[in-house]
Amino acid sequence: MRVPEKFKDRLYVTKERIVEDLRKLGLKRGDVVVFHSSLKSIGYVEGGANTVIDAFIEVVGSGGTVMVPTFTFSFTRGGVPFYPAKTPSRVGLITDVFWRRPDAYRSRHPTHSVAAIGKHAEYLTSGHENTSAFSKHGPWGKLVELDGYVMLLGVGFNVCSFFHAVEDRLELPYYDISMEALVEDDHGRVFKVRLEKSPEGHRDFYGEPKRDSKVKLELMKTGIVRTGFVGEAPTTIVRSRELLTALYEIIKRRPDIFLCDRSDCAFCSEAKKKLVGWTLPPLDI
Predict the structure, then answer these.
(1) Would residue 227 count as lying in a domain?
(2) Is residue 28 in a domain?
(3) Closest CA to 174 of 262, 252, 268
(4) Number of compact structural domains in the chain
């Protein structure tokens, strides 16, 4: 196979190599995993995005489940309505290829949908349109319930959406922004919906990978984060329950761990004011 010129100095990566690397990271049959990804970070992947997806499915087997974000951010796209059967994912080629596969289920959340393939796919994605984007009653909460993994494949903690699931679950007082979005139904009718607890605003971890965020530095001290490579892509994997529990303890000590310390950041400055007098609720898993 002829390798494109821009990949001539990159690693040639097959499905077998990806399978081997995922297993080295601890992923196995029966596991549930959500992964954020960058296809180009892996190297030159024979077969492209579908090869990566096939490798994940092979590793977890028929008893496991693979989930990816298929966020559309429709509220920032000039009022374009969301339609789950045709609106592209805006968070990477792998995710956009993933939801279009015939065995994939895609949730119907207007701005932060997810897609899943495998044993728990329908369960993970169902009812998402009736919850906030990262509610404990939606896909991210169900991931914790199933003791699934969070994986960052070739990307940093700056795209770790699970952090928003923690903000939602622990009812951090600045996580209270609502907004409207447009949704198209199966009959082509467009209507407006109101979204509660939208993950708007700034966060300290958005500054990665140029620098390490406060939350990354704290997490790396815990010993729960496993690192390795998939092809050439630096990859991080952690169990969602362990991540939630660790973040709970960190927030207990440092409630503003997700917020930046820049004096010129209006969002984080105002958010810190809302934390004054706030009481951390008990952790319910």
Answers:
(1) yes
(2) yes
(3) 268
(4) 1
Give the number of C-alpha atoms closer than 13 A to the C-alpha of residue 271, restricted to the C-beta side.
27
What range does the domain containing 97 cover? Answer: 5-275
Let me know: does 280 contact 251? Beta carbons within 8 Å: yes
pTM metric for this prediction: 0.94
Which uninterrupted H or E stretch holds 45? Answer: strand 44-45
Dump pLDDT digits (tens) for 50-87: 999 999 999 999 999 999 999 997 665 556 788 889 99
- Please report whether residue 33 resides in a domain: yes
Q: Is residue 218 within a helix (H) or strand (E), and if so which, with residue range?
A: helix 214-220
Question: With left for phi above 0 and alpha for psi between -120 and 50, is residue 25 left, alpha or beta?
Answer: alpha
The whole-angstrom separation of Cα 198 and Cα 164 is: 9
Residue 34 lies in a domain: yes
Residue 40 identity (one-letter amino acid): K
Task: Check: CB of residue 140 under 8 Å from CB of residue 146.
Answer: no
- For 145-188, the pLDDT digits (tens) are 999 999 999 999 999 999 999 999 999 999 999 988 888 887 88
Helix segments in 105-203, DSSP class H: 121-125, 139-145, 162-169
DSSP, collapsed to helix, strand or coil, labels residue 43 as coil
Report the phi/psi class of residue 188: left, alpha or beta, with left for phi > 0 and alpha for psi in -120 to 50: left
| 3-state class (DSSP) for residue 141 | helix
